[in-house]
Amino acid sequence: MGVAERKERHKEELKKEILMAAKELFMEKGYEATSIRNIAEKIEYSPATVYLYYKDKDEIMHALHQEGFKMLVAYFGTLNTIPEPFGRLIAMGRAYIQFAMENPEMYELIFVMKDPIDHVASCADDSWDEGDRAYDVLFQTVVECQKSGDFQGFEPHGLSFTIWSTMHGLCSLRISGHLGHVAEASKVKPDVDSLMTYTFETFTGVLEKIR
Amino acid sequence: MGVAERKERHKEELKKEILMAAKELFMEKGYEATSIRNIAEKIEYSPATVYLYYKDKDEIMHALHQEGFKMLVAYFGTLNTIPEPFGRLIAMGRAYIQFAMENPEMYELIFVMKDPIDHVASCADDSWDEGDRAYDVLFQTVVECQKSGDFQGFEPHGLSFTIWSTMHGLCSLRISGHLGHVAEASKVKPDVDSLMTYTFETFTGVLEKIR
DNA sequence: AAACTTACTAAACAGTGTTTAGTAATTGTA
DNA sequence: TACAATTACTAAACACTGTTTAGTAAGTTT
């Protein structure tokens, strides 16, 4: 009979509904505002019901984690159309920044917060696959750059981690507000976003020079 | 009469005692464990008393903020003995990493967390002076490098922010555990710390190349 | 019709930051 | 010296958090 299947389907829908409510709250108001009670209220169920679908808040955050990586991948979507690897590397950086700026809470969730990755470490199943894959995209691009003659004399992993560090540092300093504060004090650029673009361009200049 | 002075002195001592209790809890167990109640218990006063000396938790965190920068400055202490600016820049990077690794919670407080810097933005008095000064140390070093012939064709602020981004990115990815995770997956180096040192060395290699 | 399972929730527990009202003890004044 | 005022402190509460437990209706199976 299809009754069990229908029920199963409904359960999956509710689980998805919980996740989407969490995603909306999280992306709009951040981690603090994403309480189990707030999620429950949004889907019009009791807080305890949420626990029937997710073990704890960490598990919800882990699920959101995967959502976040899907979004990042979407930002990387059009990169394949760029055949020249160095240009693709720069475009990747630009896309990374755009993702971080348009989805700061998501960026923090997947690249800054410790709790979700701790959860990931405890359940050894799917682990941090998405993150590993995202790194691999960068690494492969660097390798391709070297194949076409760029970055000679550098080891690709070392360079990849350096590039990731720079991009992550820039984005996280921007999101946390630290870049903005120093920007205001040093008055290098009129606003934070200008400074950010400017710093990125300086970085691309560095990459051009070691090309 | 010296009675009022003695009392005033005692009040200042208690305020310091609260801060030191907070510092100890914070550096050992992190932000979560540093609750007002825990602080109060440590100094053997009631939680409400803490509020007679600090407006709220943010104000305590802001005070700890300043403590953190004092510690960072201590790590930078011996840098003046290095006359050659480029070598000093590299040593600065090494000191920055050492500070981050030996005091991860403090590093997060002053460079990662948003809340304290929000508090800093609201009270416009002393603002984020320590951070600005720390940036200025980096900037001046870059300027000195250029004076002695390095980094020609680069604008010093752009380069300073790029360097800070790289260093911060590396340290924060290490502390948050993200670097460790990708390290394990990519198996570039046997352990995270090796990867971190290795990435830093790659970065110094980049700086050497654009020197 | 009775037993069992499912889906859900009210209420509680222990914790958080923070505020309010009140209490002793000390100090200043009449 | 007696009374008022100030100081330093705290118990208890409020509103929130994540999470668990016990219980309740409804649907399913026997």
From TrEMBL, chains A, B:
This is TetR/AcrR family transcriptional regulator. PANTHER family: ACREF/ENVCD OPERON REPRESSOR-RELATED, ACREF_ENVCD OPERON REPRESSOR-RELATED. The keyword Nucleus does not apply. It comes from the Bacteria. It holds the Pfam family TetR_N. Keywords: DNA-binding, Transcription, Transcription regulation. InterPro entries: Homeodomain-like_sf (IPR009057), HTH-type_Tx_Regulator (IPR050624), HTH_TetR (IPR001647), MT1864/Rv1816-like_C (IPR025996), Tet_transcr_reg_TetR-rel_C_sf (IPR036271). GO terms for molecular function: DNA binding. Residues 35-54 bind DNA. Residues 12-72 form the HTH tetR-type domain. It comes from Chryseosolibacter histidini. The keyword Oxidoreductase does not apply. SUPFAM superfamilies: Homeodomain-like, Tetracyclin repressor-like, C-terminal domain.
